[in-house]
Automatic annotation (TrEMBL):
NCBIfam families per UniProt: PRK13672.1
Family: Belongs to the UPF0346 family.
UniProt superkingdom: Bacteria
Protein name as annotated: UPF0346 protein LTY59_09255
Gene3D superfamilies: YozE SAM-like (1.10.150.260)
Domain (YozE SAM-like): residue spans on this chain: 4-69
Organism: Limosilactobacillus balticus
InterPro entries found in the cross-reference section: UPF0346, YozE_SAM-like, YozE_SAM-like_sf
SUPFAM superfamilies from the UniProt entry: YozE-like
């Protein structure tokens, strides 16, 4: 079964890690407006660009998205 990007991202959470993707996951967990059911790159990317002041660089999202794609294949 395919999971949403958010569901995948939650598997990356680690509050004690310096890994940027894991920190992104920790912060996304606290973001109540995150598009939790989306599997769409453009939708999530647009949301993050407009709303996620906790994400210092979109390259972190790109890395997380690649991990998501790899995990789904």
């Amino acid at each position: 079964m395919r999971m949403s990007f958010y569901q995948f991202l939650m598997t990356q959470r680690n509050p004690n890690s310096a890994d940027e993707v894991q920190q992104f996951a920790n912060n996304a967990f606290l973001d109540t407006a995150f598009p939790k059911h989306s599997e769409n790159f453009d939708e999530i990317s647009h949301y993050l660009e407009e709303n996620a002041d906790y994400l210092p660089s979109m390259t972190i999202f790109d890395e997380a998205w690649q991990r998501y794609i790899d995990a789904m294949n």
